[in-house]
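Title: [Solved] Probable nicotinate-nucleotide adenylyltransferase 3D structure

Original question kept below for reference.
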Amino acid sequence: MAKIGIYGSSFDPVTNVHLWTASTIAHRCKLDKVIFLPCSNRRKDKDMKTEDKHRWHMLKLAIADNATFIADDYEMHQNAWNVYTYQTMEYFKKQFPGDDLYFIMGADLLVDIGNGEWKYSEQLIESNKFIVMARGGIDMMKTIAHSPLLRNNDDGSRFHLVDKGLSMEISSTYIREEFSRGGEPRYLLPESCYEYIKKEGLYR
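Solution (posted by the thread starter after getting help):
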């Protein structure tokens, strides 16, 4: 049985922090694979700056030299207004029957799910396991304790809480802003992605 983490984000662009986070989680949680899952640029809840084809190409460049990392474009091909994390996890469970799957997310998303702000929150929590990364000073244990949905499904294996140990919060937004303002974010993202952005004139 393999242990697989599902790591969803816009990756607009993928950053060195994304890669470092995935590598840290894979190491600490003994994951065999981390699946990078970029969302569609048709999502109504995100103001996407880049076409899917560019984000997909940069992601493939970024993870090319790491056999633990896999890119999957499943959500890019869905109707963005109808795809939810619960459905995505059901899809991957069918793709990897018998394997142990975890949804990787930040503590801020744990708060949102615990408050019932996600579609199919109950089904998602009841039928999946989660790796939750510390973020923004959020008390993850208190978040679980204060949510009836989370605490009543906390069987000791439902939530794997991870404090990365370093506060590295350089965001894709910051990198886009640097490119647009003539800044130099070269060492905040993979060199191959930096060169691709310059070549294609992205984020101007």
